[in-house]
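Board notes (copied after class):
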Amino acid sequence: MPPSSLAGIRHALERGADGVEIDIQLSRDSVPMLFHDVDLANRTGVQGYISQHTAAELTQLRYHGGWPYDWFQHERIATFDELLTELADQPTFPYLHLDLHEEDGAAGATPYVRSPMLVRALGRVLRQHRVPLARVLILTDYAPSLRQLRRELPGADLGLEINENFDQRLGEATATGVEAVVLSKYIITPERVVQAHARGLQVVVFGGRSRKAIERLLSCRPDGIEVDNVPVLLSLLGRRGRPASAAVPQAAANAPNGRHMR
């Protein structure tokens, strides 16, 4: 399924994931949209960026990947509102890791210029749907948005995404007062997890598809793990698709403050 598509999210939850990581971008008319890529062309064939189209225009766009990929999916771009409406029917509200994609790639756009609007729009939609903020982690690599999110959604956990310069960014996370750091599979090590825990931060890692790769990530003992291959992860954790209310296994045993990112 296309990343951050409704069908992909359904599929992950049906396979036993505790929650999903989804990518959020802001449409031209300030509607939070689910979309992963920087531009539209690669996944829809339409030129331009999310910020250059209204939500009504975007929700008419179908994902495509060519034959035979398009035999298996008929998804379109969705709004965050659509997702929350659907999740309201879940017996247990899943964990949501909301990855803010803020650096607008449109020609001439000032990086992060629309970040304040995205934060306000996200807060508005979460409040409208009465989403339990204890099930939400909002992450970004842009510290000013995290400070604004703290004011906008004081009950939500926040995470600073780190893809490089670990020591410097760890200090930034501490100074910003977030609950977690979100590390790429390429930079996580057991030692870095210990460093983050020593500062009272939880660690979420993203990436990993093969069994060997997921085994390595689990050996680092993160508090939460985002992978594409849910069945293999559950197998390694000794779980068989139990619902999100089930106890978290040893990967979260050492979480600071006794809280779980999943």
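Comment from the instructor: Residues 243-260 have pLDDT under 50 and may be disordered. The first strand starts at residue 19 and ends at 26.
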